[in-house]
C-alpha cells in the first residue's frame, strides 16, 4: 500500500470565503483572503519539505487529517476537544484544496476521510494519505 505522511507546523487555519469588492466604476473583483493564501502556501511548503510525495494515478484514496490547535487561555483546563471555531469542515477544505493537483490528481479520488481537531501545546496539521488497494 502506498502511504504518504507529513506534518505542517504552526496553527491550523480555516479556508476563508472568497471576497468580492466593487470599485467606483461598478466593476467587481473576486479574491481569496491573504490568510487563506498564506496557509495554503505553508501546507505546500511542508509537502515539498517532505519530498513532494505523491499518490500516482487516478486511484481511490483514503486520508486522515489531524488538526492540533493551540488552547486559548480562556478555555477550561479539562477541555481536550475544541468544539468552537474554526469549523472542522473549513479546516479540512483548506488542506484538500491546497494539495489537489500536487499530492493527488483531484480530490474526487478521496473515498474516505477521517479527521479531528484537538488542543495541543504544539499546534500543527498531520496528514496521512493512502492509496486504496
Could you say which structural class the secondary elements and strand pairing correspond to?
Answer: alpha+beta
Radius of gyration over C-alpha positions, nearest whole angstrom: 17 Å
Total domain units: 1
Shape: globular
CATH topology: the name is 60s Ribosomal Protein L30, Chain: A
H/E element order:
EEEHEHEE
Strand order of the largest sheet: 1-6-4-5
Regions with pLDDT < 50 over 5+ consecutive residues?
A: none
Strand count, sense and barrel status of the largest sheet are: 4 strands, mixed
The CATH architecture classification is 2-Layer Sandwich
Number of strands: 6
Query: What is the CATH H-level superfamily?
Result: Holliday junction resolvase RusA
